[in-house]
Amino acid sequence: MYSELVMQHFTDPQNVGVIDEPDGVGKVGNPMCGDVMEMFIKVKENHIEDVKFRTFGCGAAIATSSIATEMIKGKSLDEAVNLSNKAVADALGGLPAQKMHCSNLAADAVRAAIEDYRSKEKGTKNEGEQREE
Ligand code: FES
After folding, report:
1. Mean pLDDT score of the chain, rounded to an integer?
2. Of 23, 66, 105, 124, which one is least surrounded by beta carbons within 10 A?
3. Residue 55 to residue 58: CA distance in whole angstroms
4. How many domains does the chain have?
5. pTM (two decimals)
């Protein structure tokens, strides 16, 4: 039912954990099953310097999060924000149709973490601008 790569990332997931003082955090839930995922990113010069995740989810969610973190590490924010759930599933050699929704969780959490970072950045810049006035 699952590809070898899915099993590999499920049994030995990469980048599991939490980043202290992350630059962005994305927390998303899957309404279909109630599973939850958190993604933490460190950003340096507009690139993902480090990424970690933790999930209360199924095996497919763990595998997709694991490979998603590997796919975005070192990438620019613009590249990472465009990560699609299909690209995540394809990178794992496909997912069973009934498990495709699990890959949304990983891609959505990546986007949410980047949006969180960008909104904080914007806030910091605005604050700076206001102080200068
Ligand atoms: Fe919940 Fe897969 S069944 S994320």
Report:
1. 92
2. 124
3. 8
4. 1
5. 0.90
- Structural domain boundaries enclosing 93: 4-132
Given this model, what pLDDT does residue 23 score?
98
**For residue 121, what is the domain's CATH number?**
3.90.1010.10
Torsion sign, CA atoms 43, 71, 103, 36 = negative
Given a cut of 80, is residue 62 above it in pLDDT? Answer: yes
Stretch 57-81: mean pLDDT: 95
Give 40's DSSP letter: E
CA-based torsion, 86, 11, 110, 98: positive or negative: positive
Is the Cβ atom of 61 under 6 angstroms away from ligand 1? yes
- The more confidently predicted of residues 1 and 84 is 84
For ligand 1, whether the C-beta of 35 sits within 6 Å is yes
> What is the reported pLDDT for 41?
98
Distance CA(103)–CA(13), nearest Å, equals 15
- Best probe residue, ligand 1, of 9, 10, 32, 62 (max atoms within 8 Å of C-beta): 32
